[in-house]
Amino acid sequence: MASSAPTHRYTVRSHVENTGLTCSPSVARHIDRLARPYLSLEPGPCPPGAWEVVADTEPPASARPETVTAQGETSVRYAVDRARKTLYHLAPRGEAWVTQSLLRATRAIHRSTASRQGMLFLHAGLVELDGLGVALVGGSRAGKTTFVMASVLHGAGVMVCNDDVSLTAEPDGSGVRGVGWPRSVSVRLDTLDLLFGREAARAARSSLTHPANQTLGSLRESGVEEHGTALIYPWEYANLLDTRIGRSAAVDAIVHLGLADAPSETGATDVPLTERAGLLERHVLGLPNKHLNIFGHAPDDAAAGRTRDALAALPTFRFRYAFEDASREVARLAGHLRARVPARSPEQRPTDPATPAGPGRHR
Predict the structure, then answer these.
(1) How deeply is 209 buried, as exposed, middle or buried, from its count of CB atoms within 10 A (0-12, 13-18, 19+)?
(2) Torsion angle of the four alpha carbons 285, 241, 186, 69, in this order, in degrees rounded to the nearest 10
(3) Angle formed by the axes of helices 144-153 and 326-340, to 10°?
(4) Helices (H) and strands (E) in the chain, counts
(5) Entry pTM
(6) Closest Cα partner for 16 from 121, 161, 115?
(7) Residue 63 has what DSSP assignment?
(8) 210 near 232, Cβ under 8 Å?
(9) Are 165 and 135 in contact (CB under 8 A)?
(10) β-sheet bridge partners, residue 124
């Protein structure tokens, strides 16, 4: 299975972990682009004892098989050698899938470390909306992706993450910080039509490079995904929305988001202090990864408890909006938050400026 292309060793760094990567320089360049601004990649081997993710190398006979099958996607096969702390990519071949597979495995290792350190994973997007860090909480089809994209296009938002943020209480008790991860953004096709118009949306979809977009059409045909979906890498997201992406942000407010079925349901309401913890707990992720939870992720319960308490103390709201009015509703929520959430002074707010998701055009 070894490729004729030469491989090189790299180190991938995050705020919680360093891991090794062995692959061709071309694949490394793609991973570097996809991982920004959340992870950094640099030439050279990582320190001994770290997990390694490897391509184009025959695994030892003792390595155990591991398969990842995501809905609507081609299955990805790995081999895991726990004694050597090495994960080998086996299939499918092709540069696009090797890149996606290595990044997915690397991300899983780093997120597992974050979980062990007590970081809380929440089914939520995180956006800086008019200078406030807002965690948009909700399950699938709650309208998070549409609202985040609309806020960015509205000129009021910077996306930190789209769907699952890791949260930790600040050591000095000043609040909570949310950190994003290099994951593709799953976007409903009618969201693209709504925000960009059909012709521009069609052109955007034709330029997307995630290999799973070749097979995701089957979900719509089978009725699993009524509106159809496309996967957008962070750098593609930045280019499409002419924006930059933030690595992390202080969280100033929590908004439990949902789509309204009728105009009378739209608007914002406060969540009482007594209901916040229970409402939030429904959206805490029990596992740090959708797949590959094989690296040890049992959390530091004391640290996770401090984060839960800090989140429950934040201003918390419910917000329902009409899908077709997403752009207008961004301004409505932003106005409500400005009136209800105390703004921090620059001295109180740790800075983490947004950075490009990767090299690309920015008009």
Answers:
(1) middle
(2) -100
(3) 80
(4) 10, 18
(5) 0.91
(6) 115
(7) P
(8) yes
(9) yes
(10) 137
Question: Within the chain, which residues score under 70 in pLDDT?
Answer: 1-5, 219, 221-225, 344-363
Q: How far is CA 109 from CA 115, 232, 254, 297, in A?
A: 10, 22, 28, 9
Contact yes or no for 316/271 (Cβ under 8 A):
yes
Amino acid at 104: R
How far does CA 237 lie from the centroid of its chain? 12
Report which secondary-structure segment, H or E, holds 256.
Answer: strand 253-259
**What single letter denotes the amino acid at residue 57?**
T
What whole-number distance in Å separates Cα of residue 50 and Cα of residue 109?
10
* 44: CB partners within 8 A, 6+ apart: 9, 10, 11
Tokens found for residue 1:
């299975």
* DSSP notation for 116-146: HTTPEEEEEEEEEETTEEEEEE--TTSSHHH
Q: What's the one-letter identity of residue 267? A: G
Angle between helices 301-312 and 273-281 (to 10 degrees): 130
Q: Are 162 and 183 in contact (CB under 8 A)?
A: yes
List Cα–Cα distances, 222 to 48, 141, 187, 188, 227, in angstroms.
Answer: 47, 18, 18, 16, 11
Q: How far is it, in rounded angstroms, from Cα 199 to Cα 192?
A: 10
| DSSP of 286-337 | SSS-SS---S-----HHHHHHHHHHHHTS-EEEEEE-GGGHHHHHHHHHHHH
Place of tokens 């055009």: 361
CA distance 80 to 294: 9
Rounded to whole angstroms, the Cα distance separating 114 from 16 reads 6
CA angle 158, 162, 166 (to 5 degrees): 100
Residue 39 in 3-state DSSP?
A: coil
Query: Does the CA dihedral 17-133-253-134 come out positive or negative?
Result: negative
CA distance 269 to 274: 15
**Structure tokens, 297:** 């992720």
For the record, the structure tokens of 55 come out as 């391509």
316 close to 276: Cβ distance less than 8 angstroms: yes
